[in-house]
């Protein structure tokens, strides 16, 4: 099973669908009712600059953990969101 087109339930009613994936980038459909909707949003893999919470699993993220974050400019409304890179590796396996 591939990861593409698998809908994921995020925190706070967010619906996330991974449309494309490589080792370093994701293209995500992000729907956050009443706040924002991004049909094809690019995310990049990087080290977390701050601690936080995974938008999908609610798992704690520590500074330095491998995460995917929105890479668009200007900064989108969900710019602070992070998805654990490890979570995506587990879903794909």
Low-confidence stretches: none
The main β sheet shows up as: 6 strands, antiparallel
Q: In order across it, which strands form the biggest sheet?
A: 1-2-3-4-7-8
Gap between N and C termini: 8 Å
| Beta-strand percentage range | 35-45%
User: Could you tell me the radius of gyration in angstroms?
Assistant: 12 Å
Q: What structural category do the secondary elements indicate?
A: mainly beta
User: What percent of residues adopt helix (DSSP H or I)?
Assistant: under 10%
Mean pLDDT: 86
Number of domains: 1
Order of helices and strands: EEEEEEEEH
Tally the beta strands. 8
Shape: globular
Organism: Paraburkholderia phytofirmans (strain DSM 17436 / LMG 22146 / PsJN)
Protein name: DUF3331 domain-containing protein
Structural overview:
Helix content is 9%, strand content 44%. It has one domain (7-92). The protein is mainly β and 93 residues long.
Topology:
Blueprint: E1 7-9, E2 15-21, E3 25-32, E4 36-47, E5 52-53, E6 60-61, E7 66-70, E8 83-84, H1 85-92
Antiparallel strand pairs: 1-2, 2-3, 3-4, 4-7, 5-6, 7-8
């Amino acid at each position: 099973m591939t990861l593409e087109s698998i809908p994921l339930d995020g925190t706070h009613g967010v619906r996330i669908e991974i449309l494309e994936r490589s080792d370093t980038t994701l293209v995500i459909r992000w729907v956050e009712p009443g706040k924002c909707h991004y049909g094809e949003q690019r995310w990049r893999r990087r080290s977390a600059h701050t601690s936080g919470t995974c938008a999908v699993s609610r798992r704690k993220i520590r500074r330095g953990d491998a995460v995917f974050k929105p890479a668009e400019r200007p900064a989108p409304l969900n710019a602070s969101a992070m998805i654990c890179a490890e979570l995506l590796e587990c879903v794909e396996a």
